[in-house]
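request received
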Amino acid sequence: MIKFALGRLLQAIPVLLVVITATFFLVHSAPGGPFSADKAVPPEVIKALEAQYNLDQPVWQQYLNYLGDVVKGDFGPSFKYSGRTVNELIAAGLPTTAELAFYAMLIAVGIGVLAGVTASLRPNTMQDYVPMTAAMIGICMPSFLLGPLLVLVFGIYLDWLPISGWGDIPGDKILPSITLGTGYAAYIARLSRGGMLEVLSQDYIRTARAKGLSEPLIIVKHALRGGLIPVVAFLGPAFAGLLGGSFVVETIFQIPGLGRFYVQAAFNRDYTLILGMTVFFSTLIIVFNLLSDMLAIWLNPKLRQEIRGTK
Amino acid sequence: MAESVKDMTKEFEENGSSLWKDAWIKLSKNHMALFGLSVLVILIVSSLLTPWIAPYNYEAQDLDLGATAPSMAHWLGTDIFGRDMLTRIMYGGRVSLMVGFIATAVALVIGILWGAVAGFFGGRVDALMMRIVDILYALPFMIFIVLLMVVFGRNILLLFLAIGAVEWLTMARIVRGQVMALRNLEFVEAANSLGLSQWTIIRRHIIPNTLGPVIVYTTLTIPSVMLLEAFLSFLGLGIQPPESSWGLLINYGVETMEEYPWLLIFPGIALSLTLFALNFLGDGLRDALDPRTSKD
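response:
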């Protein structure tokens, strides 16, 4: 297992290198420098600025410098927020986004697994159709539509919940978390239904039934472990999706997190910030993919053996 | 797995040409899939005919009128410039559907070629090609597309390419798996020993047998592509005015939703209904064409 994890970590290095390289050269091939702002700036000022940020060096030199800094965990200064480094900006936004993603994930896994397992217990009955139709609606209702609709109904018409901010007024975390979590809850419901249906038709479940175990015990103790493997394997990609979703949700609800920073940086053409955040996001996603894969393997004895066998 | 694929292809082989007939019978029993198919046909036809059947001119403004609720003259109301919402949604749908189909076509072409070559040649070529796919899979594409749109400006052609370039990976894996499994089957061997040319074998035996999963996956890729376009347009990074798409209309709708909720709700319904229809059709096709992968 450890060997497998190390192997996967080693594989992550070329991926990250591709990310850094592609992002770096993309950003550097962008038309218009970072300082070609709205006002006309005297050329000597631009020269001085370029010297300050080492932009006067050849591109490959800049690339190597950047690579060296990134390895040390230093993403350099922001172009637009003068005096602040990209690291500081990421550190400022990360706790908020992490909290939002955590609540969204909680909603997604909690509701999704509950709905999926419920549906799988009585396939092709109302108990199956109702949650699965709801899940389909959830999948077809993108967050940028669901969020505003929730704001309209619960924030404006009913006036039950605050419609923007994060941690300022009690209850302002509810709508963003639901907005971000719903789509994943729907997807997880479909995955867990499929996984459970497959497991419930296996021989060892029949054996457990023949032994006279109670149905709840069979489901909780025997079926869930295998049935939820697809869900666990999906958690990694889901996490990547949550980061993308946070762009939208943080914009709609005006939450000062990483997602909104990223979108703003994109509009401001704050290239160092975009570059740094892209590398940071990619690293996070790779790490979470690895974790969810390892968890899925640990849950699946067949795969565990396969890995042992190939040692 | 190899065993079950063998069974499946044997079944296909024995039934010969009735596979498509079987699939159609299965599909026509699936009400949700038929509903999806009808919605899709209506959408495509109305998109093609939009310039002739749209009730108003796309750019016609009526500033005196302003935003009005749905009425007999304007079925879905008008926006703050007095533009007819139904007309705007129809034109927006053209763009959304076009992005969906063209980007999916890009993904399809790259994916099928890549997967077929890797699967057919196998060995080192396959290992190298699929390794590249693995690496690309691990990239955070959502972020990359945002980056691309920022760096190169919001160009609709680039949008097609960028989305297509992301979506081909899964297609390549599916096609490769199918081709690999088929390549070693008896009927391909038989065709070989009969002296048929490689091209005939690919055309006559390999392609028809990979078609099922490809069609299913294509149907499911279109909605995810449309969603990606809407997501980008919503953020202001996708389709730019004066062009319009459903994502952009939703974006505008959000700005004024307190006063004029219909400007948000109707484009939202248009997008959701389309995604709904395509997903149901895709699920139905999967059950009909590819029973063994219809797990969830």
